[in-house]
Amino acid sequence: MTISQEIANLTEDSGQDLPEENVQIGSIQGTVVGLRYYTGTVNRGEMVSLVREPQNPYDRNAVMVANVYGRQVGHIKKELAAPMAYIMDNNLARVEGVVPYGETNKFSMPVNLTFWSKEENRDAVHNQMRRHGFKLGTEFKGSLIWYSTKTSLGRDLLIFVTSYQLKNAFDKLFDDLMEDKTREMEPAEAVCTALLPHQKQALSWMTSRENSNDLPPFWEEKSGLYFNVLTNFAVKERPEKVLGGILADDMGLGKTLTTIALIVSNFHNGKPLPLEQITMCCRTLTHTIVILFICVDHEESCEPVSSSHLKRLHADGVSADTIEEDAPQKKGWLLFCVLMQCTLLFESLGFLKHFIKKKNSNTHCSRSYFISIQDQFEQHIRADVTLKVYLYYGAERKRSVKLLSEQDVVLTTYNVLSSDFGNKANSPLHKVNWLRVVLDEGHVVRNPNALQSKAVLELQSERRWILSGTPIQNSLKDLYMLMSFLKLKPFDVKEWWSRIIQRPVTMGDRVGLKNLQVLVKGITLRRTKNSKVAGRMLVQLPERRVFVQHVTLSEEEREEYEQVRKEGRKIIGSYFEEGTIMTNYADVLAILVRLRQYCCHPGLVAKYTGADDPGTPNELREHLINKITLVLNSGSDEECAICLDSLRQPVITYCAHVYCRPCICEVIRSEKQARCPLCRAQIKTRELVEYPGEEMQAGAATGENWRSSSKVDALMSNLLKLRQEDPTVKSLVVSQFTRFMDLIEVPLREYGFSFTRLDGTMAQKTRAKAIQDFQDSSPGNPTIMLLSLKAGGVGINLTAASHVFMMDPAWNPAAEDQCVDRCHRLGQSRDVVITKFIVKDSVEENMVKIQKKKQELVEKAFGVKKPMDLKQARMEEIRALMEI
DNA sequence: ACCGCCGGGTGCC
DNA sequence: ACCGCCGGGTGCC
């Protein structure tokens, strides 16, 4: 995806209560008075903010005027302040100000006020102003306006200036890209894990961002003053440096490893972190600090740290007497990582992870891991250095500022941080002056109102980093949170972010868009697996070859298949004729799923429960539960027709259409007579039937009466051949039907394959175990993994596999790619061979055609799909599949 | 002069 | 503010 595409996505803002909903309903020139009483200054063309001051002792209508830095400039003249106060207090409109000239005036200056509100408030605002003798106009005569969408002389003049300045910014950016981002840097000697070239580049870039003396984006030095080209703000003092940024590399490029290298390599001015040197003598004393890792999904389910563990902790160097005083520590900068989930930590902590030793593999609710720092050194860091790492986590964490201050690295979770912050009396993390704060999976903090976001923003630090594969998840607003964290002035204040970036971009202003690009590029390093540096692939991955193996059904299978197909065609054909295809969508889907199942294995196909008439409400409910279960277990990767995303909290309507609960509830709420978006039947919230969750399916014939299928035979002959050629080769066997995986288990056992399995029904811990076993190459460990297409989401590392067998085609080609990516990624040493089984002359072949079409569509247009287009597309698909 | 005029004091809200 | 406004001083020319 290109940056502009990404940005185009950003402008689709899902939130509510945003200034973008507002339109400009009028403007007027006012006066700022009392300039001589305040120190705040403004420049020509500079934006100012207007703040109500209801407590002002002289006038309860007072409206204060402040510059971008929040310094008070003056007040709005009282006659004008009176109607403005009413408008602002009653939220009739937002008022924004720009000082067009008179910036050197001593006593008062003009200010161009622009009123923004919802259309419905337009009259109220105009009337209120008129009552006080003011008439809101639409244009300022001959003065400069910021980001006016109208063409006027003044506007052109201003744009000319800013675009000139922008060009400078762009040139700088270009230098940035050419030099800083491709220069490599060797990590400190203490790191003995070899960094890949792109990781060295990231390390160099991060180091330069931390040590740079450059002005923050959009600041320029002009004749002794520092000038912000976007707000026209000038100050004498050099604006605070923004040390840090966003490392937004794709998953799997080694963000965490790079960051660890940064921690060790750039203490101050490119000098490595001074690490204690342990002599051989000391090492033999096994002076070991034991750090406890609790690896759980949710903090609540965490097993408390046992006292014996803690004793161990104390005994091994963190003595109890160091854990007393909570006075803020000024001396010594510290390093600090915030990690979202311990599981992630465990997965991604790069060189640390090898030292995590499983302690209780059988514990169900949580598992504890020990990290022996001594072991760590022996393998990954030079044997004679030590790094003090403290995991600030668990009920009995030591809330000692002193203890924390003495660490090289402190790890904690967002939950712990915000829980400490919530009991604000005692948040040791907020009392330390950190050298560096790193937000791992930083996109999880994106709602600025959430407590954890506030907790993150309050951390004192010299340098700040955000690590995130998806820095912008939904909208531009997410980016605002990141700017606040980085303290990138003035964008850490909502008003300026909205006025300078968010609204212009949302309104389609090109300058705004360019500013956003410059801003993001200036502080972000983002590479994908497909990025090229100087014409070469960033990551040289082994080859990836795709073979389609056509499977011919046996005579018996063909007969069964054809019978079902004919029946299905008849039914679907009649739906088309009646125009009821959408009302009977679930039944259509059922038929298609059945056909696809026949292609895999006849034993998969459930008994036909189809279009029988439900009688009592209970029977109807039962019926609907059956249908939704069918839809969700069909592996068809159904999208919600409202949000066009994967289903979240799926519910089925009485008319048998499946949506996300929040989506359909919103539809019902917003319409008086709510109708199903797909079939226009009336729907009600209380009639929505929920998916009861994963249920034990009627067991497929995996026992005595097991029989094979053409596709299973095809798979087995491939696997046997592979094993014969090279018994160490590992394969992924991917299907959308978990019950197909059940069936495949039988011959795998029969032929003595050691295999493991990963599907969506498995708990997080069992999954982790399955992955771990599969990745382990020592003899006796599984060589085959049965993998459900949708299992686990991205981020799972299955690089042990070099062969992938796609048992059945998916509706969504991206899902297949993603699945293959789990083994075709960083760390894969062999060429990856993908075999797709497609049954000849079947619905599967048609699915492949549709896949290709979809792919083309994605590549061609980045157009927004509308629900009704989707419906149309679905119908086309059904026609194509059934050859109607 | 219950005015006009002068000139000093003063000045956001 | 090289203004406006206020209010005290003043009062034919």
From TrEMBL:
KW Zinc-finger (keyword) present: yes
Subcellular location, record wording: Nucleus
Keywords assigned: ATP-binding, Helicase, Hydrolase, Metal-binding, Nucleotide-binding, Nucleus, Zinc, Zinc-finger
BP-aspect Gene Ontology terms: DNA repair
GO cellular component terms given for this protein: nucleus
Transmembrane segments: none
Pfam family, any one: Helicase_C
Helicase C-terminal domain location: 714-876
RING-type domain location: 640-680
InterPro entries according to UniProt: Helicase_ATP-bd (IPR014001), Helicase_C-like (IPR001650), HIRAN (IPR014905), P-loop_NTPase (IPR027417), SNF2-like_sf (IPR038718), SNF2/RAD54-like_C (IPR049730), SNF2_N (IPR000330), SNF2_RAD54_helicase_TF (IPR050628)
Descriptive protein name: Helicase like transcription factor
